[in-house]
Amino acid sequence: MKIFTLTNKILSFLLIIIFWFILSKIYPPVVVPSVSQVWESIKAILLDTTLVKEILTTIIRLFIGFSFGLVFSIVFSLIITHSKFLGDIFYPIIEFLQVVPPISWLILAILWLGLNGKPAILIVSISIFCIMTISLVNSINNIDKKLLEVADVFHLTKFKKWKYIIVPSLYPAFETALIVCLGTGVKLVVMAEVLTIDSGIGGQITNARINIETEMVIAWSVIIVGIYFILGGIVK
């Protein structure tokens, strides 16, 4: 099964390369640069220590925002599910925050924090917090009540309930939400950098846009995707 899945991924990658190659023959390089041009740009980026530092800057911002959002989501999820009164008050607020467009948060963050790396961290934190909290609250509320009743019959301690029932029940939804949050976080942190600051991957994409270096824009985009898959592999 793993070999079959790997084969499918390789075929998908080859289809993208073939489609890209065809488009590069139809359109000029400024519109669709060749695969070789982008590959050379990727190598140039990864061999330049200054540009590697920009990649690390983005990853650090992502990590800080992701960590804040994740920790607060876990705390709030436990509070909301423990108290129906608090849940009825705070859950609608979190749903409201979830619907607010990221660009609105970014503009507010710029007004509050200025044109620096902090707005990127803030919008990642808010987005991760909302997604994870909603996912965890729904997962906790949907835990099989019969399992908890059986645990009470056998007088299991709270620790054992969490270890053998609650955590295993939450893990699948938690892992899925974590992957979704990771993808969302990567996109948001780069978007915020593009619009607020000249450092990080977003800042480099802005520079490439100003200089009309399409191959560099695509190269940075490929690196962003690579970061997502590497971090996603670590999370899994």
UniProtKB/TrEMBL annotation:
Residue ranges crossing the lipid bilayer per the database entry: 12-35, 55-81, 93-115, 121-143, 164-186, 217-235
One Pfam family, short name: BPD_transp_1
Protein name: ABC transporter permease subunit
GO annotation, cellular component aspect: plasma membrane
Membrane topology: Multi-pass membrane protein
Domain of life: Bacteria
Primary subcellular site in the record, as a coarse category: membrane
Subcellular location as annotated: Cell membrane
Any GO BP: transmembrane transport
Domain ABC transmembrane type-1: 47-235
Record keywords: Cell membrane, Membrane, Transmembrane, Transmembrane helix, Transport
Family: Belongs to the binding-protein-dependent transport system permease family.
